[in-house]
């Protein structure tokens, strides 16, 4: 079908669709758009083309599919071009330091989109500008990306994931040189740069060539080793861990977490957790759960509780699909399960860190240089502990 014959009767919409088809090189998404036009599916087209995804401090998150409001090859290229330009303006040594890109196991066969493909296209954009890219060769948990930024002294990091969203979604998380997700005004600056760089650069589609570039490095093995080495400084009771008889069940909810959680337990010399077999391996269809968010509570943890009952385990750990969220449940004396809230876990982790710090620091005056931070929407239990113990809380 010729672009000139694409008409819906809505001038602005027609223009957006034509521009899209002019730029898009993915036959699957182009075909989806052309079918919608043929069928006169104006409402569906409006949903895809009326407004561009908003780039915020959490980056992007939307359904995979065609159009400027969805995650697809073209919007990934446009977003990365804008981000690359913004980094070029922010870091004069970008070409010396480079960036890292990771991805999870999400995929959407209908539109040809997947986290791995989006990560490759993002790498191609940076490489076309002479920027070194550390692209993981396999799926990783999200924390590997900010860790790599800090560990290698890079300018920025990108993680392609929709975290705990439904299966049709994908996302684009961005980290700054300090290893933290971006804050304002970077989000606005990146958003403006995206709007100024919508036309794909000649080399941006060349993911295959980019993967052969000398500017591309695979940090997977090194970071896997260094990450589990680094977390060991938080292991305060190795001898107790070795002899612990507490039985633990872990689920990765069809995400990337299984192998990495097993490695973390090994790093702490704990007995490996029992894995929920039906949810252990990555599966973009998330067949056993409606929403792959362990914070939804019991519905997501049903299989974990069943395994725990069979094995006599008293603790359940659950990660979301990109393994940067954690839910915990503990079996109570009466046999029922208690699922801790995020606020309760935050308080428990904060209390535990302070208790371990106290055991290692005999200088009571040093507590004045200790800080704990929480988000504005968190409970203030740690503030109460801080007032009693004398450390700072923000």
From TrEMBL:
The record ties this protein, via CDD domains, to:
PGM2
**Protein family (similarity comment):** Belongs to the phosphohexose mutase family.
Cofactor entry = Mg(2+)
GO function term, MF aspect, one: magnesium ion binding
What protein am I looking at?
Answer: Phosphoglucomutase-2
Q: Which GO terms describe its biological process?
A: glucose metabolic process; purine ribonucleoside salvage
Q: Name all Alpha-D-phosphohexomutase alpha/beta/alpha domain ranges.
A: 53-197, 226-331
Source taxon at top rank: Eukaryota
Q: What is the lineage of its organism?
A: Eukaryota, Metazoa, Chordata, Craniata, Vertebrata
Organism of provenance: Lates japonicus (Japanese lates)
Under the heading Pfam families, the entry gives: PGM_PMM_I, PGM_PMM_II
Protein's cellular compartments? Cytoplasm
InterPro entries listed in its UniProt record = A-D-PHexomutase_a/b/a-I, A-D-PHexomutase_a/b/a-I/II/III, A-D-PHexomutase_a/b/a-II, A-D-PHexomutase_CS, Alpha-D-phosphohexomutase_SF
Q: Which GO terms describe its cellular component?
A: cytoplasm; nucleus
Q: Which UniProt keywords apply?
A: Carbohydrate metabolism, Cytoplasm, Glucose metabolism, Isomerase, Magnesium, Metal-binding, Phosphoprotein
Q: What is its main location?
A: cytoplasm
